[in-house]
């Protein structure tokens, strides 16, 4: 038996509780992992609360991330004792996830934990940090450097945004952090933000072309916010879009793309190829200030993740949440 958060019922009426689960019920997979740490992402919170149809079948164990030690393997790349990370691949949606003491998955979904990184720090980063690094890598591949100009980060007090601010600042970029919680300004400056912008300034309908203000951006919001971000990007700049917290629509025009030649990169972390995952995680291991990461991370017990999910969606959580699964 192992302990897990379990979502049961139906899409219209689900129940969530901490339960003991028979190991024999683990789904198919050629690698079994003793999970050491998981984390609470926006998608996990949606699944736990039922505010969006994240769980595609029931019962479901949520948790799109985990880090732990291989207990049993029939996969050629892994052996018992190996430290591994999992992000995405439909885990926590279609396949039992990481908010549990055990997980069984395809070894093709796993990557080795970087040698210089702990399991806890891996989950302090989690999909949020991994996605933030994919965004940074996209901007760098576009050719943006600290000399290019200011980089805008929306949702800056949240998981992806806070890591993106910290990474960009660490790499020498000037960062403007956008937040709907201006009381978090000191926190954002502690991460390295040079300027703080109230989200309200980007939330309403704007001009098709605004003043050329930012060389690039990392956007987690979508909708009107993303439209306004695109309108304010400098000539030949770029935006890495990875979220839809403000909505799935994009009420924009083609003007910034045609008249200024900007580029909009869509960042997918769920099904990203292994090579990109390995690069992103090694970059995180090499770049992220672990002391700073600790300062923006809160540890909670597995039993507290259900309440924390509601708090996260209500905007009451800043930074990252780590869930030590094994005491």
Count of all domains: 2
Query: How many strand elements?
Result: 15
Gyration radius from CA atoms, angstroms: 20 Å
Q: What's the oligomerization state?
A: single chain
CATH 4th-level superfamily of the largest domain: Medium-chain alcohol dehydrogenases, catalytic domain
Give the SSE string: EEEHEEEEHEHEHEHEHEHEHHEHE
Identify the CATH class of the largest domain.
Answer: Alpha Beta
CATH topology term of the largest domain:
Quinone Oxidoreductase, Chain A, domain 1
Structural class: alpha/beta
- Tell me what the CATH architecture of the largest domain is: Alpha-Beta Complex
Average pLDDT confidence is 95
Which strand-content bin applies to the residues?
25-35%
Largest sheet: 7 strands, mixed
* Helix percent band: 25-40%
Q: Label the overall shape.
A: globular
Summed up, the helix count is 10
In short:
The protein is α/β, with parallel strands linked by helices and 327 residues long. The chain has helices spanning 42-49, 119-142, 159-170, 185-191, 200-203, 223-231, 255-259, 274-287, 290-295, 305-313, and strands at residues 2-9, 14-21, 31-39, 65-73, 83-87, 102-105, 110-112, 151-153, 175-179, 195-198, 214-219, 233-241, 263-266, 297-299, 320-324.
